[in-house]
Design a protein that fits this description.
The complex is a heterodimer of chains A (about 650) and B (about 350).
Chain A lengths: L3 H32 L1 E10 L5 E11 L2 H4 L8 H10 L1 E10 L4 H4 L4 H6 L4 E8 L6 H16 L12 E2 L12 E6 L6 H9 L15 H5 L3 E11 L3 E12 L20 E2 H5 L12 E8 L1 H10 L10 E3 L5 E6 L5 E9 L12 E4 L12 E8 L5 E10 L3 H4 L7 E10 L3 E12 L2 E3 L1 H4 E7 L8 E10 L4 E10 L15 E3 L3 E8 L14 H7 L3 E5 L3 E3 L9 H24 L2 H14 L4 H9 L13 H29 L1
Parallel strand pairs in A: 1-10
Antiparallel strand pairs in A: 1-2, 2-8, 3-4, 3-7, 4-6, 5-6, 7-8, 9-14, 10-13, 11-14, 12-13, 15-16, 16-22, 17-21, 17-24, 18-19, 18-22, 20-21, 23-26, 24-25
Helix pairs in contact in A: 15-16
Chain B lengths: L1 H31 L3 H6 L5 H11 L1 H8 L4 H16 L3 H14 L7 H10 L6 H10 L1 H6 L16 H24 L5 H14 L12 H6 L5 H14 L1 H7 L4 H15 L5 H11 L12 H24 L6 H20 L3
Classes of the chains: A alpha+beta (about 650), B mainly alpha (about 350).
C-alpha cells in the first residue's frame, strides 16, 4: 500500500510526462507541417488584341521525404507517391486547348516561354534511374497519370509514341522521355482532378475564381503541372493555369473622342463573373498581380506621366499594395507589376481588380527573334513534304550588333510518327529564296530514324542563321505508310497528327529581374520569371491524311482472297492429278458422249479435237458412271436430311 | 542505269543458250523415240531465240530496267542458275542459286528442279513413254546407246553432279555469308540480317499496296488470326513443291518455270520483275505450249491488268476516290492462276 501522497505524486509526474510527450509530438508535427508550404498567385495582363490573359499559379512544396515521413498536411499525397515510386526528378504535364498566338501575345517574355504549350497533352519526365529501366518506368508513369487526370495519357506508353531527345529539348544524359498527344481534347474532366490536388480545391482562395464557362470559352487555356524533386529541397509542385479570355464588356466597342477605339476595360468580375472574397486559409501567401507590359509602359513614358496605377492612359480600379518595376539588362525599366495582397480582403470587402482605359492605345508585345511555322506540301496519299519556315521579326537588330559574322542560333526538335516516313537525306534549306548547302546552315544534327511500328523519327538540329536573314525555309520529303485496319483511329479520314515541333533560341534569355523586391517578399511566380530560360516557341500541329482501306468489308476481303487461293490450289492439284493417257481417254469418252449432250460436244470442239461421230460403243460403260453418280447424289441427300433432323431435334 | 541494261542483256543471252540446250535435248529424245515425223510436223521454232526475245521485249522487263530496281539482277541470278543446270555446269548453277536465294527467299525452292536437271538432264517426255517404247522395240533401244547418259534408261539418276553442286553451293554460301557478316559486324551481325530480310518477307510487316494477292488481305485480317494466315499462305507455296516435283520430274526445266510462276503469284511482295521472269521463261517452252488453249483470254487479260493497274493506283492513292485495288489484284491473281493451270494441262 502506497501512501496517497506518493500515488498522487506519481500520477502527477506521469501526467507531466504525457504532456511533455504530447508537446514534443505537436511541435514535431508542427515543424513538419510548417515545412510544407502552399502559395497561390494570379497574374492578369491586358493583351494587345483586346483580350486579357489570366495566369493562375499554385505552388505546393514538401520537405525531403526523410523529414516528413508519409503524412502530408498540404501537399497532395498522390503526387508524392508518384515521385517516390517512379524516381522522378523532373516532370511536366500540360493539357492545352487552343494555339498561343505568338504574334499578338508575345514570344519573348517568360510567360509565353513557359506557358505557351502545344495543343493536346505534352508530357516529359526526367528519371533518376539506370537507363535500362527508364522505358518500363515511363510506361507505368503514363498509366498512373492517365488515371490521375482522367485523360488518355496511356496512349503514350507504346514505344511509337515517345522519344528520348538528347539535346534538342533539354540537355540530358539519356534519362529524359518526351511524348505528346496532339489530338487530346481538354475539358472540365481534366480540370477537376487537377484542382483536387490543391489544398483548398476550388472552394476558397484564388482557385474559386475559376468559373468553368468562362475558362472554356476562352481562346487558349492550358493547365500545367510541373514537378521538381531533389533530395535536398524535397518536392516542389507548381500548378499553373493560363487562360486567354475575351472580356465581355460593353465599353469595349466605344470610340473615344479622339477617334480611336479604346481597349476594353475589364475587371475580374467581367472575366470570371465573381470577385475574390478571401484567400485560401492554409496558404502562406496569396497575391494578385496586374502586369503592364513594356509596350504600354513605353507609351506612358512617352505621354510624359509617371507609371503609377493612375495615369493618363489607364487607371486600376483598386490601389495596389505594392508596385514592382522590372529592369532589363540595360537597366531600363521595361514592365511593371502591381501587387495586391489578398490577405487584406475578405467576403465583406471582396477584391475586384480591374483596368479602365482612358486613351486609345496600340502596343505590341516583344516577340521571339523568328516566327517559326510549319506546313505540309504535296498532294496525294503517297508522298509529301514537311516545310518549316522562320520569319524574322526584327528583334535581332535591336539586340545584337550587326557585324558580318553575326549569326542567330536556333535549335529545332521534331518528333514524327513512324507512318510518316521522313527521308532525312532530302533536307533542303532555302535562305531568302536561295538554296544553301546544308553544311552552311546546319551546325549539328542528330537523327533517330523511324522504324516501322516501333519508333517515331526524332530530329534535333542546331541551325545558324545570318542576322540579316528575312526568311528561311527547311523542307523534308516523306512517304506515307499504310496501316493495319486496327491501327486507324475512329475517324480515320480526318487524318493523323504530327506533334508540334519545338524551336528554341539558345542565345536569347527570357528571364526577368525585379530588383526592388525586398528579401522578405517571396513570390514563386516571380521566382519562376527570374529563372534562366531560353526563348522557345512551338510550331503548329500538322494533319496528314493517309490512305484508308475499306473498313466496311474485312470479311469480304478475307473471303475473296481465300476463294482465289482455293481456286488456284484446287485447279493446280486437279491438273496434276491427270495423266496424258487419261486425258486421251477422257476425250474419247467425250467423243462417245457427244451423242448424248451438247456440252461435251462444245468441250470437244473447244479443245480443237476432231469430233468423232463414228464411235459406237455400248452404252453400258456410259450408264455405269451415271448410276454411280445417282447413287452418290442420293447418299448425300440422305445424309443431309439426317443431319437436318438431328440438328433440329 | 546501264548496269541494268547489261544485266538484262546477259539474262537474255543465257535464256537463249538454255533454250538451245533444251531444244537439242528434245530433238534427241524425240528421235530416240522414232518420232522424227512428229518433230517435223510440230511447231519447231527455235525456243531459245523466242524466249530471249520475249524476255527483252516484255514491257514489264523494260519497266523494271528503267526503274532501276534490283529485279533484273535477281532474274539474272535465276537464269544463271537454270543455264548452269541445263549445261551441267555445277559451279555456275551453285553460284546462281546462292545469289538468288540470298537476294530473295523464294528461289530456294528451285533447288529441286536444279537438282533434277543436274541429275537427269534437260527436259524429256515422261519415262513411261520410253519404257513403252523400250518394251515394244527392245532391239532398237539397245543398239542406240552412244548418245550420253540421257539415252540409256531415263530413269537413271546420276548422283555425281548433285554432290558436286552441293559442294559448290556450300562454298559459295560460306563466302557470301562471311562477306555479309564482315559488313554487318557493327550493325547487328548475321542474326539481324536474317531477321530483317527473310523475316520481313515471311511475316508481312509493311502493308504498302503492291500487285500481289497478300497485302490487302494482311491489311484487313484480324490480329488474332494473323499468324495462322501467314503460315497458310507461306505453306501454299511450299506445299505445291512436292506434288509438282513428283509429277514433273522428267521435265525439270519446265518444273522450274512452274515454280517461278507460282512464286510470282504468291510471294509476299511481288513486283513486275517476277512476272517478267516467268513470262520470259514461258518462251522457252513455246513448242510444247503451242497447243495451249484460252491464249486469247490470257493474253488480253495480261494487257488489261497492266493497263488498269496504274489507273487504279492513281484513283485510289492520289485522288482518294475509290478503293478498287481489291478488284485489280483479284483479277491479276486469277489470270495468273488460270494461266498456270492451262499450262499444266499441257503436260
Amino acid at each position: 500500500m502506497m501512501p496517497p501522497s506518493t500515488a498522487r505524486r506519481l500520477c502527477f509526474l506521469s501526467l507531466l510526462l504525457l504532456l511533455l510527450l504530447l508537446a514534443a509530438a505537436a511541435s514535431a508535427t508542427a515543424d513538419a507541417a510548417a515545412a510544407e508550404e502552399f502559395t497561390e498567385e494570379l497574374l492578369l495582363r491586358p493583351l494587345p488584341d483586346r483580350k486579357a490573359l489570366a495566369h493562375f499559379h499554385f505552388r505546393s512544396s514538401a520537405p525531403p521525404a526523410s523529414a516528413a515521413g508519409r503524412h502530408h498536411h498540404l501537399f497532395p499525397k498522390a503526387i508524392s507517391q508518384l515521385v517516390q515510386k517512379f524516381h522522378i526528378s523532373e516532370l511536366e504535364l500540360s493539357f492545352t486547348q487552343g494555339r498561343w498566338n505568338y504574334e499578338q501575345w508575345g514570344g519573348y517574355d517568360p510567360m509565353s516561354t513557359n506557358n505557351a504549350k502545344p495543343p493536346g497533352v505534352e508530357l516529359w519526365a526526367i528519371f533518376d534511374l539506370p537507363l535500362a529501366e527508364i522505358d518500363a518506368t515511363w510506361k507505368n508513369l503514363t498509366h498512373t497519370l492517365s488515371g490521375l487526370f482522367c485523360a488518355s495519357i496511356n496512349f503514350l506508353e507504346s514505344s511509337t509514341a515517345f522519344s528520348a531527345p538528347r539535346w534538342g529539348f533539354k540537355l540530358n544524359e539519356g534519362n529524359l522521355r518526351y511524348g505528346a498527344l496532339p489530338r487530346e481534347a481538354v475539358c472540365t474532366e481534366n480540370l477537376t482532378p487537377w484542382l483536387k490536388l490543391l489544398p483548398c480545391r476550388d472552394k476558397a482562395g484564388i482557385a474559386s475564381l475559376l468559373y468553368r464557362p468562362s475558362v472554356y470559352k476562352g481562346y487558349y487555356h492550358s493547365q500545367k503541372l510541373k514537378l521538381k524533386s531533389s533530395q535536398s529541397l524535397g518536392i516542389i509542385l507548381d500548378q499553373t493555369l493560363t487562360v486567354v479570355l475575351q472580356p465581355n464588356t460593353v465599353s469595349g466597342k466605344q470610340l473615344h473622342s479622339t477617334g480611336g477605339q479604346l481597349q476594353p476595360s475589364w475587371s475580374m468580375e467581367h472575366l470570371f463573373s465573381k470577385k475574390l472574397s478571401g484567400k485560401c486559409l492554409v496558404s502562406k501567401s496569396s497575391r494578385v498581380f496586374v502586369e503592364i507590359e513594356k509596350g504600354i509602359v513605353d507609351n506612358v513614358d512617352k505621354a510624359g506621366s509617371d507609371v503609377s496605377s493612375n495615369n493618363d492612359l489607364f487607371v486600376l480600379s483598386t490601389a495596389p499594395d505594392r508596385s514592382l518595376k522590372e529592369l532589363d539588362n540595360l537597366e531600363v525599366q521595361s514592365s511593371s507589376l502591381y501587387e495586391y495582397d489578398v490577405n487584406n480582403y475578405n467576403s465583406d470587402k471582396p477584391l475586384n481588380v480591374g483596368i479602365t482605359w482612358k486613351l486609345p492605345l496600340i502596343w505590341s508585345c516583344t516577340r521571339a527573334p523568328y516566327h517559326a511555322s510549319r506546313f505540309l506540301m504535296g498532294s496525294g496519299n503517297e508522298r509529301g513534304s514537311i516545310a518549316m519556315s522562320f520569319l524574322s521579326t526584327g528583334l535581332d537588330k535591336q539586340l545584337v550588333d550587326s557585324s558580318n559574322d553575326c549569326s542567330i542560333k536556333a535549335v529545332v526538335f521534331q518528333v514524327v510518327p513512324w507512318y510518316v516516313k521522313v527521308y532525312y537525306h532530302s533536307l533542303e534549306v532555302f535562305i531568302d529564296g536561295n538554296s544553301k548547302a546544308i553544311s552552311e546552315v546546319v551546325d549539328k544534327i542528330h537523327v533517330t530514324p523511324s522504324e516501322d511500328k516501333l519508333l517515331p523519327g526524332t530530329m534535333e538540329m542546331l541551325l545558324k542563321f545570318p542576322c540579316s536573314m528575312q526568311l528561311a525555309t527547311l523542307t523534308l520529303d516523306f512517304d506515307k505508310g499504310f496501316l493495319h485496319i486496327d491501327e486507324y483511329p475512329p475517324d480515320a479520314n480526318q487524318g493523323f497528327d504530327i506533334p508540334s515541333a519545338l524551336v528554341s533560341f539558345p542565345e536569347f534569355n527570357s528571364s526577368r529581374s525585379y530588383p526592388e523586391a525586398d528579401p522578405l517578399f517571396v513570390s514563386p511566380l516571380l521566382e519562376n520569371f527570374k529563372e534562366d530560360g531560353v526563348v522557345k516557341s512551338y510550331t503548329e500541329v500538322l494533319l496528314v491524311p493517309l490512305t484508308t482501306p475499306d473498313f466496311s468489308m474485312p470479311y469480304n476481303v478475307i473471303t475473296f482472297t481465300c476463294t482465289v487461293l482455293a481456286l488456284y490450289f484446287g485447279s493446280l492439284l486437279n491438273a496434276l492429278r491427270r495423266r496424258i493417257g487419261e486425258e486421251e481417254r477422257g476425250l474419247k469418252k467425250a467423243g462417245i458422249l457427244n451423242k448424248r449432250g451438247l456440252i461435251p460436244l462444245l468441250i470437244a470442239k473447244l479443245r480443237g479435237q476432231k469430233v468423232d461421230p463414228s464411235e459406237s460403243e455400248s452404252t453400258s460403260p456410259a450408264s455405269l458412271p451415271r448410276s454411280k453418280l445417282l447413287l452418290k447424289v442420293v447418299f448425300v441427300a440422305v445424309v443431309a436430311i439426317v443431319f437436318h433432323y438431328l440438328s433440329n431435334s | 542505269s546501264l548496269v541494268f541494261v547489261a544485266v538484262d542483256f546477259i539474262a537474255a543471252m543465257l535464256i537463249r543458250s538454255t533454250g538451245r540446250t533444251l531444244q537439242m535435248a528434245r530433238n534427241r529424245s524425240l528421235k530416240s523415240l522414232d518420232l522424227t515425223k512428229s518433230v517435223n510436223n510440230s511447231v519447231n521454232v527455235s525456243a531459245g531465240d523466242t524466249a530471249s526475245l520475249i524476255y527483252l521485249w516484255n514491257p514489264w522487263t523494260i519497266i523494271t530496267c528503267v526503274g532501276s530496281c534490283t529485279s533484273p539482277i535477281e532474274n539474272l541470278m535465276v537464269v544463271i542458275m537454270l543455264h548452269g543446270a541445263c549445261s551441267r555446269l555445277a559451279p555456275l548453277a551453285a553460284f546462281g542459286y546462292v545469289m538468288a536465294t540470298h537476294l530473295s527467299l523464294y528461289p530456294a525452292i528451285l533447288i529441286l528442279p536444279v537438282a533434277l536437271l543436274l541429275g537427269y538432264g534437260p527436259d524429256t517426255p515422261p519415262t513411261k513413254v520410253f519404257l513403252q517404247k523400250g518394251l515394244s522395240a527392245n532391239k532398237i533401244d539397245m543398239s542406240d546407246n552412244g548418245k550420253g547418259t540421257s539415252q540409256k534408261g531415263f530413269g537413271q539418276f546420276s548422283w555425281k553432279p548433285i554432290l558436286h553442286f552441293i559442294l559448290w553451293v556450300f562454298i559459295w554460301s560460306c563466302y557470301v555469308l562471311s562477306l555479309n557478316s564482315i559488313i554487318l559486324n557493327k550493325v547487328g551481325g548475321l542474326q539481324e540480317m536474317f531477321e530483317k530480310t527473310y523475316g520481313f518477307i515471311l511475316t508481312v510487316k509493311d502493308l504498302s499496296p503492291n500487285i500481289g494477292v497478300l497485302w490487302y488481305f494482311f491489311a484487313e485480317v484480324f490480329d488474332f488470326f494473323r499468324s495462322f494466315f501467314l503460315i497458310v499462305f507461306n505453306m501454299n507455296i511450299i506445299f505445291m513443291v512436292l506434288p509438282l516435283a513428283i509429277r514433273l520430274k522428267h521435265r525439270p526445266c519446265f518444273l522450274a518455270f512452274v515454280y517461278t510462276a507460282i512464286v510470282a503469284m504468291l510471294k509476299s511482295y511481288p513486283s513486275a520483275g517476277d512476272s517478267a521472269l516467268y513470262l520470259g521463261l514461258l518462251g522457252l517452252f513455246a513448242n510444247e505450249l503451242a497447243e495451249m488453249q484460252f491464249t486469247f483470254f490470257l493474253f488480253f487479260g495480261y494487257i488489261g491488268v497492266s493497263l488498269l493497274s496504274p489507273v487504279m493506283h492513281n484513283l485510289w492513292i492520289w485522288r482518294v476516290s475509290l478503293s478498287l485495288y481489291l478488284y485489280l489484284y483479284l483479277y491479276l491473281s486469277l489470270s495468273l492462276s488460270t494461266h498456270t493451270c492451262c499450262v499444266l494441262l499441257l503436260t
